[in-house]
Every structure is written in C-alpha cells, then in structure tokens.
Write a structure and sequence with these properties.
Elements lengths: L1 H11 L1 H4 L30 H37 L1 H15 L3 H12 L3 H28 L2 H8 L4 H37 L11 H7 L12 H26 L4
Helix pairs in contact: 1-3, 1-10, 3-4, 3-6, 3-8, 4-6, 5-6, 6-8, 7-8, 8-9, 8-10, 9-10
C-alpha cells in the first residue's frame, strides 16, 4: 500500500513536487546522478526526476481510466450473458472469442497504426481488448450465482434483469472482480508502457515511463544507467499492486495464517 500510495501522491502532486516543467531542457545530455539533478538528465537534457513524476501522472491516470472502462464493458457484458443465456450468451461469447483469438499486442499495434495514437484512441483500443478478459471472468462468476435460490426468488418476484444484476449478482461477485481489477490494472499499465516503448503509446513530449526507457536506451551503451530509473518505477508499481491483490484475496478467502 505504501508503494502504491507513493506513486499516487507523486502523480497527483507532480506539478507541485517537480522542480522543473515537464518539457523544460535544463542541462546537458545524460548528466550523472547528484548535484542539481537528483536522478540526472535524459537524452535531451531534461530533468529525469521531473519526467518521472509527470510520467507517473500520465501513465497511471490513463491506465486507471482504461481499466475502469474495460471493467464496465466487460462486467455488464458478462453479467448479461450469464443472466439471459441463450442467444445473448452465445453471441457475446463468440464476439469475445474472435477478439481474443488475435495476439493482443499485435492487434493493438495494427489498430493504433490506423486510427492514430491519440490518448482517447489509446484508451478505447486497450479497454476493448482488455474487456474480453473481464467478460470471461464475470460471466463465469455470474453463472454460478445466477442459479442460486435467492436469484430465482428475485425472478419469481418479478424483478427486472438490471435489478437482479445490480442487487443480487454484483455484490456476491465483488471479491474476484476487485482482485481481477488490480491484476488488470497491472496488465494495462504494462501494456501502455510496452506500446510507448514501441512508439505507439503516449507520444512525446508527454512523459511516459515506457517511452522514457526507449528514449534513453542508448545510454546503456556508454555505461550510463539512466533508463533503469523509469524501468524501476514500472517494476515497483506493478509489484505494489500485486501485493495488494494477494492481500485482498487472502482476506476475502477467510483463510487464517
């Protein structure tokens, strides 16, 4: 929680904490750590500490919005498929199977190269691709819940399908869905970083951790380890979220040490 909280605080307070602006050139290229620049400078002479703070702001915000959108789409679709069954379940499942048959990264690269790499396009493409995984989980969980007696009782009372999904299925499906949200956030976060590393994610001059690794990769050739800072930031946030997910699953399962 401390690891994640530090990243969230850095993202929210980046304009206040950062000593320079996001795109300001303040020194020579690849200056070492220490002195005026806490983490050195990047390939253009921008303060790397400042870029890391703004990178957290951009990457985490986009990953969170994307994960939320994918969960809204995937959960509603999965619950509808499980509750209605029949042709609704068959149609939605086949659409999801078609989308999942394509390698995610290759499919995203293909679509983004056509529609462009704007932030809305990035969010929409990744959310649609990631919602297929959420659909499969929410459908599987909802199918077990939809046959329970209290759901049948709600049907016999004449409750509408949306009421049953919201009041009966969703509360009982929350533990696995919350855990999956954390895992999906990690995957989306790493996916955005991967796209930025390949040049089709968050575009310069906006700071992004994956893009910062790509831009400064040449420094390794000269024994300068500047790219390791954004790479470490990616690893720390991912590990932090996964630790929270493991803790939540342990608590939700009711197991004791």
């Amino acid at each position: 929680m401390v690891l994640v909280l530090l990243n969230v605080v850095a993202a929210i307070l980046a304009p206040v904490i950062a000593p320079y602006s996001e795109t300001e050139i303040v020194g020579d290229v690849w200056l070492p750590v220490g002195g005026e620049f806490i983490l050195g400078t990047d390939q253009l002479g921008r303060d790397l500490y400042t870029r890391l703070l703004y990178g957290a702001r951009n990457t985490i915000a986009i990953a969170f919005v994307t994960t939320m959108l994918s969960f809204i789409v995937g959960t509603i679709g999965g619950f509808l498929a499980a509750t209605l069954g029949g042709w609704t379940d068959l149609s939605l499942s086949r659409i999801v199977d078609i989308l999942m048959s394509f390698p995610t990264l290759i499919f995203a690269l293909m679509v983004l190269s056509v529609v462009g790499t704007s932030v809305p396009a990035l969010i929409l493409v990744i959310a649609v691709l990631d919602s297929t995984r959420v659909f499969r989980l929410s459908r599987a969980v909802a199918m077990d819940i939809a046959v329970m007696e209290y759901v049948e009782a709600a049907r016999l009372r004449g409750e509408r399908i949306w009421w049953i999904m919201r009041q009966e299925i969703l509360p009982n499906a929350m533990p696995p869905l919350v855990a999956e949200f954390g895992l999906r956030f990690c995957f989306v976060f790493l996916f955005i970083a991967s796209l930025s590393f390949l040049g089709l994610g968050i575009q310069p001059p906006s700071a992004d951790w994956g893009g910062m690794v790509r831009e400064n990769g040449g420094a390794i050739t000269y024994g300068i380890f500047i790219p390791l800072w954004p790479a470490a930031a990616i690893a720390v946030l991912t590990v932090g979220v996964n630790l929270i997910v493991d803790w939540f699953l342990h608590v939700a399962s009711g197991l004791k040490e």
